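Purpose: get a first structural picture of the assembly so the mutagenesis plan has something to point at.
Setup: two entries, given in the order below. No constraints added.
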Amino acid sequence: MGSVGASVASAEQDDLSQRLSRLRDQV
Amino acid sequence: SMASDPLPVLPPAPQQFKPIQHYLRTAQEHDKRDPVVAYFCRLYAMQTGMKIDSKTPECHKFLVKLMDQLETMKKQLGDNESITQDVVGNAHIENYAYKMFLYADTEDRAGRFHKNMIKSFYTSSLLYDVLTVFGELTEENVQHRKYAKWKAAYIHNCLKNGETPQ
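Result (structure tokens, whole complex):
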């Protein structure tokens, strides 16, 4: 369960980073 | 029109995000006056918030909404070169920060001490922080930021204690 939670959190984190990169046109 | 669409509403800020509240308040104060300034204040808050904590559920939720706000603003600002070109955005924020600094400094040197000039010193120092989204500050900007922050605190304390700033 713990590792599933961690990977969900990490995917969400990636999503925010990606959105930030797109916002800054750095993708 | 799109330009008048309200921004998504932020949930209450978690305790961890107290340090970014000043920048979010400055953003709100500039939504109508200067949307480019408002945009970069939110961007700085976003970057700083992600460094503080993006994992705790309420922090993550807050940052997602803040990102929604940024994406909405970017659409509204469209092809504004201050948003699409870093060098133009950098100049915009630097000029604005310096204009606020100069206003407060002029009032200071004329011996006119009041709430508005204290706020201008303080806002100027915040905008020099915001300017770091474009990279490292020049030495001159570092000095302005330091001086503005110090002056705002010093004059605020003088007025609070009924003293005349020197």
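The CA atoms of residues 9 and 15 of chain A lie 10 Å apart.
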